[in-house]
Specification:
Elements (H helix, E strand, L loop, with lengths): L12 E7 L2 E6 L18 H32 L4 H13 L3 H14 L3 H8 L5 H15 L7 H12 L2 H4 L2 H15 L4 H10 L2 E7 L2 E7 L2 H15 L14 H18 L18 E2 L2 H4 L6 E3 L3 E3 L1 H8 L29 H11 L15 E4 L14 E4 L1 H9 L3 E4 L5 E4 L5 E4 L9 H4 L6
Antiparallel strand pairs: 1-2, 3-4, 5-6, 6-7, 8-9, 10-11, 11-12
């Protein structure tokens, strides 16, 4: 049984197992953890469950560190130009985004420079999040000092980081690491600020019915954005005599959308760059039956399904422009071919609407921000036909032409890709809202 006055230390706990009504803990000094709980945890006391949580977390930390070790091995074997394209193979194999694979590959290689910290990860003491914080700090240190000074600097850094990193939260570790960097290499602060400016960017993704925007800005840039959003959100006009009941966060979100909406439709919109030959726009696909009031999801380009109510609201917006297209009973567009290299406008619109996103498995970049590529190259006899056209973001366009990724579009609309390492990945066909108008109409009175 567990001694509740003197619980076992975390570094000696392997796994809690319930057998024959008795609880016992396997004391493991190696990272070779065993199986999961054999009985439901509901029968355990609070302390026993906590000990099991500690054991499982340590086991997860070990697995994460082993993955980083394997990634470091791949990074070492694929230096130079091959590195960018091995990232794509890793991303497809692990079913993660290219950017995530690239970050993990860089982190793995960086952590090899601090073997004591990495050893703490392999023993289960440090989580992946903490290892990522350390990797970021190591890059900041090693990238801004003379190479001859790096070994001693990293030894001092490791000594300062360990062992407090084991018991700290990630937030505490991140703040302390920043102070360590400022103490060990104060001359790097200005350069770190320049690097932060170089890495600025905006990304978007969707989860269920909600979408997320992530802004990576300099400190002064973030303050500018928040000041503008707060100033706009501070206006709380009465609507039809009723007070504004929105929360502060809701007003901020609405303010940001309104500011951007004005930028798209205001007097300066003519200066915006073209996307696939058209002005930037929010693109929604909705069936005729849904427009007429039936249920059935619409499709918001780049994000996925939306409710019929929201699709109708966007479709009937005064600034909306409509483009008609014909969809078969399985949600696939009907198209025509062309004899020229550049696809005509109608075909371009068809392909962009049909696929919605980049044709590479795992990539969700909106098709209208991609290149239109011939699946089978034009100069090798490929046709300018919708079946031979696909949207590819710039990274995956280069992967196809420069690294030997080979796509094949199948009859069901899906695309199979053969990677340079011989693995096959599949991108399913995008399905669009299916029109049910014919089913909703009353039969003729005869």
């Amino acid at each position: 049984m567990i001694n509740r006055r003197n619980p076992l230390k975390a570094d000696r706990i392997g796994l809690l197992i319930k057998t024959g009504g008795l609880c016992r803990i396997l004391r493991l000094r190696s990272p070779d953890f065993v199986t999961v709980l054999s009985d439901p945890v509901a029968s355990f006391s609070g302390m026993e469950v906590l000990e099991a949580l500690i054991a499982n977390r340590r086991r997860a930390n070990v697995c994460d560190a082993e993955e980083l070790a394997l990634l470091a091995q791949l990074a070492e074997a694929n230096e130079g130009d091959d590195r960018e394209f091995i990232v794509i193979d890793i991303a497809r194999a692990l079913h993660i985004a290219d950017a995530t694979a690239s970050v993990r590959l860089h982190e793995a290689q960086t952590l090899m420079l601090v073997p004591r910290v990495f050893a703490a990860g392999r023993s289960g003491d440090l989580s992946r999040t903490k290892l990522s914080i350390v990797a970021s700090a190591v890059r900041a240190l090693t990238g801004r000092v003379a190479p001859s000074a790096v070994p001693e600097l990293l030894q001092r850094f490791e000594a300062a980081v360990l062992p407090r990193a084991i018991s700290e939260t990630p937030g505490e570790l991140r703040r302390r690491v920043q102070k360590i960097i400022a103490r060990l290499a104060p001359e790097t602060l200005a350069e770190a600020e320049r690097d932060a400016a170089a890495r600025r960017g905006v990304t978007a993704w969707a989860e269920s019915a909600q979408a997320f925007l992530e802004f990576r800005l300099t400190a002064d840039g973030a303050e500018t954005v928040m000041t503008a959003v707060d100033a706009h959100a501070a206006k709380r006009p009465d609507v039809d005599g009723q007070s504004d009941e929105r929360t502060v966060d809701q007003r901020r979100a609405d303010a940001l959308v309104e500011i951007c909406n004005r930028a798209l439709h205001g007097s300066d919109c003519t200066e915006l760059p073209m996307q696939q030959g058209r002005r930037p726009a929010v693109n929604v696909t909705v069936s005729l039956s849904a427009l007429l009031g039936a249920d059935g999801p619409g499709e918001l380009a780049g994000f996925g399904p939306i409710s019929a109510d929201l699709a109708r609201e966007l479709a009937f917006d005064p600034t909306a422009r409509w483009t008609g297209c014909v969809v078969d009973a399985e949600g696939r567009l009907i198209h025509r071919g062309s004899t020229s290299y550049r696809p005509p406008t109608a075909m371009r619109e068809y392909v962009l609407t049909r696929d919605g996103v980049c044709a590479m498995p795992g990539c969700l970049r909106t098709a209208r921000r991609c290149d239109l590529d011939h699946v089978h190259d034009w100069h090798l006899g490929g046709l300018t036909d919708a079946d031979n056209l696909q949207p590819l973001c710039r990274r995956h366009h280069h992967a196809k032409h420069d690294a030997g990724w080979q796509p094949e579009r199948l009859e069901d609309g899906s695309t199979e890709w053969l990677s340079p390492t011989g693995r096959v990945y599949r991108k399913p066909a995008t399905t669009l809202p299916i029109d049910t108008t014919a089913h909703d109409l009353d039969p003729p009175p005869f």
